[in-house]
Amino acid sequence: MTLILNTESLTKTFGGLSAVSTVDFNVQKGEIMAVIGPNGAGKSTFFNLISGFLPPSGGRIVFSEEEITGLPAHAVALKGIARTFQTTHLFPNSLVIDNLIIGNRLRTRMNFMDSIFKTSRARREERESLDNAREILDFVGLGEAASRPVDSISQEAKKRLAIGLALATRPRLLLLDEPAAGINFNETESLMHLINKIRDSGITVCLIEHKMKMVMNLADRITVLNYGMKIAEGTPGEIQSDLRVIEAYLGGNEVA
Ligand code: ADP
Ligand code: MG
Prior knowledge:
Blueprint: E1 3-14, E2 17-28, E3 32-36, H1 43-50, E4 58-63, E5 66-67, H2 73-79, E6 81-83, H3 96-105, H4 112-117, H5 120-139, H6 155-167, E7 173-177, H7 185-200, E8 204-208, H8 212-218, E9 221-226, E10 229-234, H9 236-240, H10 243-248
Parallel strand pairs: 3-8, 3-9, 6-7, 7-8
Antiparallel strand pairs: 1-2, 1-4, 4-5, 9-10
Helix pairs in contact: 3-5
């Protein structure tokens, strides 16, 4: 097993509140690691720290043997970490494929002069961007929906498009913040299929999720946060029988 990500004593305080407190965490290359915990446990903040959207108050983050602590989000993205957000940010009036191309263009080298004079580099990059977008749409199962406006596709399709946007940056590690929030059980199945497919394509996956059936079926390992602290880590079987975890979930109803 090869370590792809680890945090040492990672901490984030907001005023007097420790949203993330001295968390040691590691992800092995090729695994699906889930992060669970009650609302307000610090899960999204933890992802914001790893992806560079928030600077940590303390501790270290190492990705692929390189320290990335304190790097801004765009620099972390260039290193190979992509993420989705708890709420999906899409352009609702634009076409599905345009959403992907716009997202992708933000990371290409095309500059203003290139785009005005349609240099050969600009034309090549446009073509590559379109090819990349089509490939990603096919991968996430939205090939047929490419020319539809985003607000005409289902909530579950929007979730897959948001994952596609993250994949368009060709990450080695993908962080998914509640990918199944707001969709029904049948739709969860196809999302689980997609997440497995992403892992099978060689991308390591880290996901925050409340739907316990999904977490228990998908994850190789689970880390549990409670009040910003890591209270347990282990396989789905170990986590389901962990007393601290059951207690954190008020009797274990949510873990069953
Ligand atoms: P989770 O994703 O596990 O539900 P969050 O990471 O969103 O939890 O939040 C953890 C705690 O940090 C909560 O108490 C939340 O109110 C607080 N928090 C999160 N982001 C901020 C922020 N930008 N400023 C102040 N407090 C925040
Ligand atoms: Mg959250």
